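We emphasize that the prediction below concerns an isolated chain of 570 residues; any contacts that depend on oligomerization or on bound cofactors are therefore not represented. The input was used exactly as deposited, without trimming of termini.
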Amino acid sequence: MTQGVRALAAAHRCGERAVRDTVEELIDALDAAQDRATWISRVPAEELRARAAELQDGPADLALLGVPFAVKDNIDVAGLATTAACPDFAYLPTRTAFVVRTLLQAGAVLVGKTNMDQFATGLTGTRTPHGACASVFSREHVSGGSSSGSTVAVAAGIVPFSLGTDTAGSGRVPAAFNGIVGLKPSIGRLSCRGVLPACRTLDCVSIFARDVADAAAVLAVADRFDPADPFARRPPAPRDGRCPSLIGVPRAQDLAALDDRSREVWEAACARAAQVADAVVEIDLEPFLAVARLLYEGPWVAERHAAVGDFLEREHVTADPVVRAIVLAGATASAVDAFRGLHRLAELRRETEPVWEQIDALLLPTAPTHPTHADVAADPVGVNARLGIWTNFVNLLDLAAVALPAGSHDNGLPFGVSFVAPAWSEPSLLRLAAAFEATTAGPTIDIAVVGAHLSGMARNHELLERGARLVRRTRTAPCYRLFALDDGSGRPGLLRDRRGGAIEIEVWRLDAAALGSFVAGVAAPLTIGTLELEDATTVHGFLCEPYALQDAREATSFGGWREYLASAGA
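Result of the prediction step, given as a token string:
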């Protein structure tokens, strides 16, 4: 789905686009989606069509009219099982969570329930029996969790926004790994009634969207006080929402966990922050990091046991062994441990308070590294712990945060940063994030590549040198044929033909100003044309003149150029 929240709702409201057409496009995209691990359950197509008809004939001024969205499978939807990625735990709720009902009342279209780390315990997206989601940028790299499916559904363009949850970073880490925005509101701002708890005193419903303005638009609708939620809070008197003028960044020694590949991108992000602030100053992050360690090393694990520990203690229950071990370990904490933990948190909170007298917002890398599935399999606990180093403290200290893209590594994977500030600072945080986002705004164009320009291949540098970034890996519509040209160039040729199949491609985004020099390097018989993708959208990309394919070797059956080369090499 090419349009975002605001654009799609506006098109529906003015009659430029029919909700029925959007839903039909959505159904096609769901059927063609590449990552089947995204969903745990889906609303049937006939129900989606009925919802479209209801909205088409209803009020035309709804804020989210006809906008599809997804929710994490620890959030209740009447008629769809809530499993928290544990089939043995499944129950069928009779009432939809308050926050979801609020979005539905605004005209949104619920698509289904998404995959997650079981019982929202994890930051990798791999602790699930439904298959681990991958980053939309790389099948070898994890999607991040625990809100894995909700993130991928947005990043892959299936829905414009989704809901996750965030206790330790689950609304931010996967956003960073998939190049989208993840908003973690203040605790109690969005109702958690109808949300299966992880740590009930810390849990938040989070929002995923493609850009900051779309995340803000969803927050504006969902931000309703729920008197029936005992943990809901009323916001204080509104502030002016000004953009923060003083931004804090960690000292070099507080960034020891940041991998080498990320350091240059981080420095560029700090330079961009300086463009939108009066000053960027270094702060001592150690008290924050000490708070982060409390989340799993302190007694708060007992709160996870309070949520689902009794269930996981049953012998017949099948559960992820890492999740079970973490949750059941909480049974050993005593009331004395809990009070000692609260006392230590109060001491550390007092140590962090002077920071907020020096700065308006804190800028951090969202995650220190982007692990592969193999990395997580080799060290599931250690890798997960490292991912939360700069996210775990946020809810314990009652802060708000927004994660957003901040560039790409040299391997095409996205790098993300987070802005963090005290509770109820969302208006100013979102203004700051939007200003940061705009520092790279400019005309861009997406182009699909199929051969030597793929990431890691011989001519990929021609994209990287022009500042291009990988948007996603996907496939063409099933109507293309792939050939190995017989001209000694080692290039593939792509031809549209109804007898063909779906071919793997990468979509790269580069500044429009750089397009001319890139296209100038495209030599005959290759040309730039329009490709249809598996989700029915179109993009500019490489095609081949038919005359050059007479003696070429067909490679369509391999499904992609990498697979063909691997076979040829073997």
